[in-house]
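Posting this for the archive.
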Amino acid sequence: MTIEKITMPKLGESVTEGTISTWLVKPGDQVSKYDAIAEVMTDKVNAEIPSSFTGVIKELVVSEGDTVEVGTLICTIETEEAGEKKETDNPSSAAAETESSSTATDDTAMKSRYSPAVMRLAQENDLDLSAIAGTGKGGRITRKDVEAIIASGEKPQKQEQKQTATAETPSPEREQTTEPAQVNQSDAAGKAIPVTGVRKAIANNMVKAATEIPHAWMMVEVDVTDLVAYRNKVKDTFKEKEGYSLTFFSFFVKAIAQALKEFPQLNSSWAGDKIIQHDDVNISIAVAKEQELFVPVIQSADDLSVKGVAKQITNLAKKARTGKLTAADMQGGTFTVNNTGSFGSVQSMGIINYPQAAILQVESIVKRPVIINDMFAARDMVNLCLSLDHRVLDGLICGQFMARVKEILENVSESTMPVY
């Protein structure tokens, strides 16, 4: 027998650590190579860790909720060496019966352990997980099991718990002694919310970015009246033809990607003793799902049309909402564009997506009076806010970049930025 080590894998280009959210195995469990053994969360993606070997789990080195760096030992597994036979001592019938009972208990425990993706899909589609037969280890319900139920259209609905004559009814004394204690505890101490999972990963990454990166900021004001008119003119026809929306954000991402190609200094990453200037313009965008935030990537955004950008945004947002984002969807980002305007924000300063060199916030488009030729005119205005890593970038180059983005957006038309 050989004891092998399984370490925290790297789940993204800039991912340096992960949080074990749930162990799917325990010491003594037999697993095959590629079986999922744990669920891990990072600031960019939720994923399952597969076993690298076939064998028996010996020790879980990292506890659930712990955050460790990539490459850290998380568990050990005992494998059978090639050509070596297992010992086959015959156990007594009592021992065999005990083993059978233990296996049945383990299978039941595995079946009731649901991954966050499974829980989300079940809640969104009003499914009763106890009524679904799982195909995973020990009868565990996998995401594919739930997706198959949803696709079939035959959804086992949640069953209301039936009250029976034999059901125990809480006594008045119990109600009087328990409920006031809960109220008093809430009033005195408030609600304690553990920092785990995605929120913990985001917190750790934000602290690293804020403490290691010397941030500087700048903002430009852009007149997007022509852009608004052009988009409003074609949006209905586009939606009818393509089946998804043509958003203002698509035009902003396209313009920024074009400017990044002209100013590659901003399409860079800090790498300690060197600065890496990337050839590909891969735009990271923030996508929210309930209380979770993901940062998928639009690959080679500068090569896409406005339609192509819009399609990528739609697909990535849909994947995030349905829990289908993969590690590949989150990798390779070189610059982040954040649509803070969707929340009604008019000015904000983002924290840079480490190790990228900058992040640009697109604020709300607001109609305001602007002086043109010494006369007031109602114009559609937007603020663009840039946070930059001052180790990599200086105000001069960033000012030139922002001026170019402004120029592109203020001259959007069917000829300068066609949708198709």
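Residues 83-105, 158-187 have pLDDT under 50 and may be disordered. The chain has ten helices and 19 strands.
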